[in-house]
């Protein structure tokens, strides 16, 4: 039991990093399966380019949209947006950029692994007239005609076969170089932005750790209390239905109350609130009438506050 507790604590402490690693591994595995079992380049001058680009980019787009769908912050921002008015301006753009950066992990992994494999790029590039003019400079006059057939290696004559092998090696090298460049960008750019965000953090390292612990506990307790309250309310309503009686009056939050604790978190250095719920219960009735966008600003390093979700917190 103690070992299980240690593993669980490790998961809670590093669940974001572990989640990104798991997503990357599953994406890489999925790309390998697609490239070996599903993908078959048509070896046609008209179809190579669109066919290769579809396999390279469409799954990446699907994974990017899936990242948005699975983000708790997306639904916190979107739910009720049409009724109450959506946040706009710099703050809304910053939130969307943060969600996009998180959602981009899987699609960039797909593209990088696909480029390292070379099959999708080789098919797409062999159907490009622009690359054909570049690759065939100083080569055999049959080069442009043979380029679309390179992925299938359909030549019979030895000299043509040798030409196709040379073209294939060059296309594979281009694809792998692009793949490693993309991997370098994916590593360096987030590291730079993370370092800048941490450097500009309004709170210290230990307070951030405390903040994360607080959010885990708040969501866990909120889920427990919400379950208990919903259960009691449901029992009371069912009981009154069968007994034909009037329900007891219960102090349930209003629509306005729910909207206030569902809004995106805005940091105010003059206050020390760790969530919108924390801010709500400590505000006076007068101060609650102002909107959160007027009370603070979105800070990138504190984006995890809105990313917390009740269903993502493991019950202890």
From TrEMBL:
Which Pfam family is one of those matched by this entry? Ca_hom_mod
Localization, per the record, is: Membrane
Any one Gene Ontology MF annotation carried by this entry is:
monoatomic cation channel activity
- Membrane spanning residue stretches: 50-70, 177-196
Q: Which InterPro entries match?
A: CALHM
Q: How does it sit in the membrane?
A: Multi-pass membrane protein
| UniProt family annotation | Belongs to the CALHM family.
What's the protein name? Calcium homeostasis modulator family member 6
Q: Which gene encodes it?
A: LOC108633231
């Amino acid at each position: 039991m103690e070992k299980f507790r240690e593993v669980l604590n490790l998961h809670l402490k590093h669940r974001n990093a572990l989640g990104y690693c798991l997503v990357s591994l599953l994406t890489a595995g999925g790309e390998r399966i697609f490239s070996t079992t599903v993908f078959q380049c048509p070896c046609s001058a008209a179809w190579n380019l669109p066919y290769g680009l579809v396999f390279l980019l469409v799954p990446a787009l699907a994974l990017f949209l899936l990242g948005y769908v699975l983000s708790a912050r997306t639904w916190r921002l979107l739910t009720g947006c049409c009724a109450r008015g959506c946040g706009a301006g710099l703050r809304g753009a910053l939130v969307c950029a943060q969600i996009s950066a998180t959602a981009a992990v899987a699609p960039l992994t797909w593209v990088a692994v696909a480029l390292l494999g070379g099959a999708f790029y080789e098919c797409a590039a062999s159907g490009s007239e622009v690359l054909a003019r570049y690759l065939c400079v100083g080569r055999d006059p049959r080069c442009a005609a043979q380029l679309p057939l390179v992925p299938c290696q359909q030549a019979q004559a030895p000299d043509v076969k040798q030409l196709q092998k040379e073209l294939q090696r060059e296309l594979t090298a281009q694809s792998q170089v692009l793949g490693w460049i993309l991997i370098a960008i994916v590593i360096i750019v987030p590291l730079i932005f993370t370092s800048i965000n941490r450097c500009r953090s309004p709170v210290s390292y230990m307070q951030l750790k405390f903040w994360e612990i607080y959010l885990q506990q708040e969501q866990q307790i909120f889920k427990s209390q919400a379950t208990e309250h919903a259960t009691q309310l449901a029992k009371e309503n069912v009981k009154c239905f069968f007994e034909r009686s009037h329900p007891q009056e219960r102090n349930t939050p209003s629509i306005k109350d729910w909207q206030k604790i569902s809004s995106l978190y805005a940091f105010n250095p003059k206050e020390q609130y760790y969530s919108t719920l924390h801010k709500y219960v400590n505000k006076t009735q007068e101060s609650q009438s102002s909107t959160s966008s007027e009370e603070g600003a979105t800070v990138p390093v504190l984006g995890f506050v809105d990313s917390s979700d009740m269903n993502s917190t493991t019950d202890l």
